[in-house]
């Protein structure tokens, strides 16, 4: 390899750059590039790394037909009585209860289309706990208490008139 040729080419390039730009213009260009950097699509790269992750036990047995069963695909991270068994819906509270303004989140895989979706789990509060056989404890990607937005062990009735827990809903937020 001809090191003298590489050395002279790099010297010529750096001298040309030094002659044609000032420090201020160079800093302005670097600042402009840094401020434009957040507009680059970074997330698809992170998703590509997760594409080869094997399915969890929950994802292998998840179904899309019966939302009163614990293996319904949206319930991968739910903990509590299902509102679908207590007079409410998959994302609506039963009459006489109110939805907590706070929620925890989970990322569940829909077996029909193979895509992952962000699910917001919300507790319905204001009545005693719904006594039903529909009590689920989904722990997929559950996080410890120092990450409370993904911890399903907390009673999320903050901001309601009553801290009495009744049941939990699973609202679809959107694809991940």
UniProtKB/TrEMBL annotation:
<dbReference type="InterPro" id="IPR006311">
    <property type="entry name" value="TAT_signal"/>
</dbReference>
<protein>
    <recommendedName>
        <fullName>Methylamine dehydrogenase (amicyanin)</fullName>
        <ecNumber>1.4.9.1</ecNumber>
    </recommendedName>
</protein>
<dbReference type="Pfam" id="PF02975">
    <property type="entry name" value="Me-amine-dh_L"/>
</dbReference>
<keyword id="KW-0560">Oxidoreductase</keyword>
<keyword id="KW-0249">Electron transport</keyword>
<dbReference type="InterPro" id="IPR013504">
    <property type="entry name" value="MADH/AADH_Ltc_C_dom"/>
</dbReference>
<keyword id="KW-0574">Periplasm</keyword>
<comment type="function">
    <text>Methylamine dehydrogenase carries out the oxidation of methylamine. Electrons are passed from methylamine dehydrogenase to amicyanin.</text>
</comment>
<dbReference type="InterPro" id="IPR016008">
    <property type="entry name" value="Amine_DH_Ltc"/>
</dbReference>
<keyword id="KW-0732">Signal</keyword>
<keyword id="KW-0824">TTQ</keyword>
<keyword id="KW-1015">Disulfide bond</keyword>
<keyword id="KW-0813">Transport</keyword>
<comment type="similarity">
    <text>Belongs to the aromatic amine dehydrogenase light chain family.</text>
</comment>
<dbReference type="InterPro" id="IPR036560">
    <property type="entry name" value="MADH/AADH_L_sf"/>
</dbReference>
<comment type="pathway">
    <text>One-carbon metabolism; methylamine degradation; formaldehyde from methylamine: step 1/1.</text>
</comment>
<comment type="subunit">
    <text>Heterotetramer of two light and two heavy chains.</text>
</comment>
<feature type="domain" description="Methylamine/Aralkylamine dehydrogenase light chain C-terminal">
    <location>
        <begin position="63"/>
        <end position="174"/>
    </location>
</feature>
């Amino acid at each position: 390899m001809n090191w003298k040729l590489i050395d002279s080419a790099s010297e010529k390039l750096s001298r040309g750059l030094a002659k044609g730009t000032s420090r201020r213009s160079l800093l302005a260009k670097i600042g402009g590039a840094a401020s434009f950097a957040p507009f680059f699509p970074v997330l698809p790269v992170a998703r590509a790394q997760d594409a080869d992750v094997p399915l969890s036990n929950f994802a292998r047995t998840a179904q899309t037909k019966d939302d009163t069963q614990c293996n319904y695909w949206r319930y991968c991270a739910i903990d509590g009585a299902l509102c679908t068994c207590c007079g409410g819906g998959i994302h609506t509270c039963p009459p006489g209860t109110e939805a907590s303004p706070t929620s925890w989140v989970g990322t569940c895989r829909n077996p029909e289309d193979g895509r992952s979706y962000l699910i917001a789990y919300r507790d319905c509060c204001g009545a005693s706990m719904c006594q039903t056989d529909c009590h689920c404890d989904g722990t997929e990607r559950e996080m410890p208490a120092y990450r409370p937005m993904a911890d399903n062990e907390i009673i999320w009735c903050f901001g309601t008139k009553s801290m009495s827990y009744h049941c939990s809903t699973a609202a679809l937020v959107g694809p991940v």
